[in-house]
Specification:
The protein is built from seven helices and nine strands. By secondary structure, the protein is α/β, with parallel strands linked by helices. It has a seven-stranded parallel beta sheet with strand order 3-2-1-4-5-6-9, sandwiched between helices. It has a two-stranded parallel ribbon with strand order 7-8. Helix 2 packs across helix 3, helix 3 packs parallel to helix 4 and helix 6 packs across helix 7.
Length: 222
């Protein structure tokens, strides 16, 4: 059995934290290399923490090294970038795209990323438009397999409090039973389930481009 090396972007985020734990416990992965902006304390024989200057492409290239699978959970918020769309794009678009291109050059064969329900490069909403552009450009890269996950509202405890998201979770949880048929894709989902589904998809090693919304994510967990 070939045991794989994973690279994780966004290891400290809501999905990323669960993803790292899943990978560390998964027998198919021998190394879990986390590319982070700031030092991260994580003691595990399979864990590698690489502090990266994401403004320096050469540094990203050096830190990504070689491996098999890239998991991308990176993302920012409007609050963190103080409404600056250029800064938002730099995190949510530039880092994934640059890392993905370098991943191809370094021999990685799989790329898995978290997007968002409703992602569309033609969307009027800036966030959904940006996610759509990322999807479009990632799927044009010559990876053997690409898996894109489109969750709706994420359930789980964040380190930072987000008022709007908290209200959204409460409302959507209360109305979740009404989301049937074509509306099921908007059902809230636990971040831990998205992480588990990402690892399951990577282990399947199926070629091509694959999109996962609520039902498809649940199917991967079965």
């Amino acid at each position: 059995m070939h045991r794989k090396t994973a690279v994780v972007l966004g290891a400290t985020g809501l999905i990323g934290q669960h993803l790292v734990q899943e990978l560390l416990e998964n027998e198919f992965f021998s190394r879990v290399r986390m590319l982070v902006r700031r030092p991260l304390t994580l003691k595990h024989p399979k864990a590698e923490v690489q502090v990266v200057d994401f403004n320096d492409e050469k540094d990203i290239a050096a830190r990504i090294d070689i491996g098999d699978v890239i998991f991308c959970c990176i993302g920012t918020t409007r609050k963190k970038v103080k409404g600056n769309k250029t800064a938002y794009r730099k995190v949510d678009y530039d880092i994934p795209i640059i890392t993905a291109r370098l991943g191809v050059q370094h021999g990685f064969n799989q790329f898995l990323m978290v997007s968002a329900i409703g992602a569309n490069p033609l969307a009027a909403n800036f966030y959904l438009q940006l996610k759509g552009c990322i999807e479009e450009d990632i799927t044009a890269l010559p990876f053997e397999s690409i898996h894109i996950f489109r969750p709706s509202i994420l359930l789980g405890k964040r380190e930072e409090f987000r008022l709007g998201e908290s209200i959204g979770k409460t409302v959507m949880n209360a109305l979740s039973f009404l989301l049937i048929g074509g509306w099921r894709k908007y059902k809230p989902i636990h971040a831990a389930d998205v992480a588990s589904a990402m690892v399951a998809a990577a282990n399947k090693e199926i070629a091509g481009v694959h999109m996962y919304e609520y039902d498809q994510i649940q199917n991967l967990l079965m």
